[in-house]
Write a structure and sequence with these properties.
Elements: H1 2-54, H2 61-78, H3 87-105, H4 108-118, E1 125-136, H5 152-157, E2 162-170, E3 174-184, H6 187-194, H7 196-254, H8 258-261, H9 264-296, E4 304-307, H10 308-323, E5 327-334, E6 339-342, H11 344-360, E7 366-374, E8 378-383, H12 391-394, H13 418-428, E9 432-438, E10 442-449
Parallel strand pairs: 5-7
Antiparallel strand pairs: 1-3, 2-3, 4-6, 7-8, 8-10, 9-10
């Protein structure tokens, strides 16, 4: 739930940024589109003016002459309307016929194409003509007027086109007003080229902001995770410290009892208990100091050429004596007298941490094996039949203070530092440690060290 609350503001901010960028790009596109239309409209109107000056022709002179002739025919046919009901059909037919004449007989498009090419503009375009008003004039019948309706097609097709000019013409038998539109074939590509810098900057800004958001979110979640780990560490350490302190406190009060003071053996046992818990408490305090030291300084080792098998056997012997009958412990070595530069103290800590973890996280009787081989360097593996580690936890088990848990309950005591030390010690020896595990099936920790020195 908290994660959702964290991510939600980031998503909202990102959406707002995308919306703002979309608005900016759309406004730039709209502005460029208007400039584009204005440029072509200006050039086209200059071309029409030149035509009128040079040739006295707007590009529609022959079309208008033909329309005058056709209008006379339509007027004659219109008298049939008095005996027929299809007035609307007649007007539509007249409108269509006049529009076709304007489209077929005009010469303006060729003139404009040549002018655009000379000026370095895109010469490829489509043209559309819309008849706005059309009147057929019948002087013999006291000016019977027939007005053609506006076409719905105009409202749809004229969007995005460039209105070059509105032409008016009047003859003996007609009056007409029509619009001449051009549609530049590559308009979108040309505008896109012009705003490419704006698009590139918006895209780069989006990438940068996304990277900042991602980095900020990752850092926040990482800080939150580390804070949680430190909180768990403090809680675990507090619990670990309270146990010996409580025992020492109770034991101290016990020594004040008269029946205890009269029994020398019980005094000795209580004193031994206090001493044992004091040693444990001292170890915890030293551990805290050691953590602080590791945070402030580089990890230092005192490496010596060591027989790896002999060292592993010594560690194993100590572990077997401490483990007793609680586990089945087996060893297998194939090192052939291999030697390596090892810090004995830290390396012993590394192996013991893995062995004791194997016992700590086992169900029932532990079965633990320690194996070592000498192939392209030293490879040491510690396998167990424990509870295993989930894939999600495997990514973090070598991190400081991290502890595998079920829900929010840590069933096994610890500070979450054992595997962290293992990783650091292996790295200090120029090696590495990996884990292979499956929940309920156990785990295998594999330590690899650099190429060794053979005898």
């Amino acid at each position: 739930m908290r994660k959702k609350r964290t991510i939600l503001p980031v998503i909202v901010a990102l959406i707002l940024f995308l919306a703002s960028q979309f608005f900016i790009v759309s406004q730039v596109w709209r502005q460029k589109d208007e400039v584009f239309k204005l440029r072509y409209r200006s050039v086209a109107r200059e071309a029409i003016d030149d035509m009128m000056v040079k040739d006295g022709d707007s590009g529609f002179d022959y079309a208008c002459f033909k329309i005058d002739y056709v209008s006379r025919i339509h007027i004659d046919n219109s008298r049939l309307l008095f005996s027929g009901p299809d007035t609307t059909g007649f007007i539509s037919a007249v409108h269509t016929n006049i529009a076709e004449i304007l489209t077929k007989e005009q010469v303006l498009s060729k003139y404009l194409s040549d002018r655009f090419e000379k000026l370095g503009l895109d010469k490829d375009f489509k043209y559309v003509i819309f008849v706005n008003d059309l009147y057929l004039i019948d002087f013999a019948n006291n000016f019977h007027l027939y007005k053609a309706p506006l076409s719905e097609i105009k409202e749809q097709s004229s969007q995005g086109n460039v209105l070059v000019n509105t032409f008016f013409s009047e003859g003996n038998n007609y009056k007409i007003a029509f619009d001449y539109y051009i549609d530049i074939t590559n308009k979108k590509r040309l505008i896109l080229r012009e705003i490419s810098i704006t698009l590139a900057l918006s895209f780069i800004s989006l990438l940068i902001l996304s990277a900042i958001f991602a980095g900020t979110l990752r850092n926040y979640l990482e800080e939150k995770r580390l804070s949680g780990l430190k909180t768990d560490f403090i809680n675990n350490m507090t619990h670990e410290l309270k146990t010996p302190l409580s025992t020492i406190t109770v034991a101290g009060k016990t020594l004040k009892l008269d029946e205890i003071l009269k029994d020398k053996n019980r005094i000795v046992d209580t004193a031994n208990l206090i001493g044992k818990q004091s040693v444990h408490l001292n170890k915890l305090i030293n551990l805290i100091l050691e953590i602080s030291m590791w945070e402030r300084t580089q990890f230092q080792t005192d490496k010596k050429v060591t027989d790896v098998e002999c060292l592993l056997r010594e560690i194993s012997e100590g572990f077997r004596n401490g483990c007793g009958e609680e586990c089945d412990f087996t060893e297998k070595y194939d090192l052939n007298g291999a030697q390596a530069e090892i810090d004995i103290l830290y390396f012993t800590t590394l192996i013991n941490n893995l062995l004791h973890n194997a016992v700590k996280y086992s169900k029932g009787r532990s079965r633990i094996s320690l194996e070592a081989t000498n192939e392209n360097g030293i490879t040491i593996s510690v396998a167990d039949n424990g509870i295993g580690i989930s894939r999600s936890d495997q990514k973090h088990i070598f991190e400081k203070f991290y502890r595998v848990s079920t829900g929010n309950i840590h069933k096994t005591k610890g500070l979450g530092l054992g595997l962290y030390y293992v990783k650091r010690i292996a790295g200090a020896h120029g090696g590495n440690v990996i884990v292979s595990s499956k929940q309920g099936k156990g785990s295998v920790f594999i330590i690899t060290l650099p190429k060794i020195i053979n005898r």
